[in-house]
Amino acid sequence: MSTPQAQAPAQTRAPARAAGWRPAPGPVACIGETMAAFVPEPVAPLDGADLLRVRIAGAESNVAVYLADHGVPVRWVSAVGDDPFGRRIVAEVAAAGVDVRGVRTDPRRPTGLLVKDPAPEGTGVHYYRRGSAASALGPDLLDDEAVRTASLVHLSGVTPALSPDCLALVTEALRTPPGERPYSVSFDVNHRPALWSDDGMASTAGSVLHDLANRADITFVGLDEARALWGDELEAAGVRALLPGPRILVVKDGAHEATAFDGAHVHAVPAPKVDVVEPVGAGDAFAAGFLAGLLRGEDMVRTLRLGHLTAGAALRVSGDHGPLPGPARIAELLGTPPGEWGPDPSGEPLTSVFSRP
């Protein structure tokens, strides 16, 4: 179901600033399912692949791992099956520096699986997650200490598509208005049409995701998914008109730019040039970089830049997680003069700067 478009309010572009609402400092809790992922190696269409590499894949754990890379204290809260895939997932996320004490082990339900199918026009995904351990999570998870004591809870639109219980979990987390709940909430729309295709759910995705996105303190949405969900003529300002609720709204326009609506202020930062290996996971990486910038008090332009740089780490690898540049190089890039930041076709792609210290 699409949400009617609305006229965008007048916005003025403002200089970068650190003032304005920001989430309180403290640990972040990322809630959501992570699966064992089978990926063709070398990267190629699945129907011609001879070898599959086992990796892990989950939007919220991706965010958690990149937050840990940026030095943010972070917890991943979820459930896995009592099986080798579940144990592997928990071990890998923990090894990245993420607190996994909020992860439950379900003795009756399996860990979810997915298989990636890379193709020139984009990567397809085949899910095997119906009845998984994480699909049984419900609102009681919000009573877990790992969630109750967080300063920021990160959720995505993947979770409410998994089951009625998971929808209830996300709805309850966002039920209390901003400023009255014990933690701030960030929400990445992260629309996965394949997850909404069963039992007539496709017709509800637009309205459900709109309602959830509009209740968060911080919302991330791709312009392409906003158009698919709410109107194919939308531009960034129109998305803000449809989602006036978030204190901060970030509209990502792929390889072009990302725009942050921070109260009455608008900040747009172009995406730097990156040699792309695979785009999957870049949105999660962007969200992590942006949240890290907010939590450490960066101004909005530097915060958007940190989102772009973190997304670049994901874009240049075939998995969901790639190494960041060193801290000194990140600081140098964040301080790049405005005229030298952006997609200059004659300039150096970000791929090459990731190898620098």
Helical content class: 25-40%
Beta-sheet strand percentage? 15-25%
The strand count comes to: 14
Main sheet: strand order: 1-14-13-12-11-10-9-2-5-6
Outline, from the CA principal axes? globular
Order of helices and strands: EEEEHEHEEEHEHEHEHHEEEHHHH
- Residue stretches low in confidence (pLDDT < 50, at least 5 long) are 1-18, 344-349, 351-357
Computed Rg = 19 Å
Gap from first CA to last CA: 48 Å
The biggest sheet amounts to: 10 strands, mixed
Number of helices, counting only DSSP H or I runs of 4 residues or more: 11
Strand-pairing-aware structural class:
alpha/beta
Instruction: Let me know the average pLDDT.
Output: 87
Provide structural commentary.
The structure is a single chain. The chain is an alpha/beta fold and 357 residues long. It has helices at 59-69, 84-95, 145-148, 164-175, 205-215, 223-230, 236-242, 282-295, 300-315, 327-334, 350-353, and strands at 12-13, 28-31, 35-40, 52-57, 74-81, 103-106, 113-117, 124-128, 152-156, 184-188, 218-222, 248-253, 257-262, 265-270. The strands form two sheets. Strands 1-14-13-12-11-10-9-2-5-6 form a ten-stranded mixed beta sheet, sandwiched between helices. Helix 5 (205-215) links the parallel strand 10 and strand 11. Helix 1 packs across helix 8 and helix 8 (282-295) runs antiparallel to helix 9. The relative contact order is 0.15.
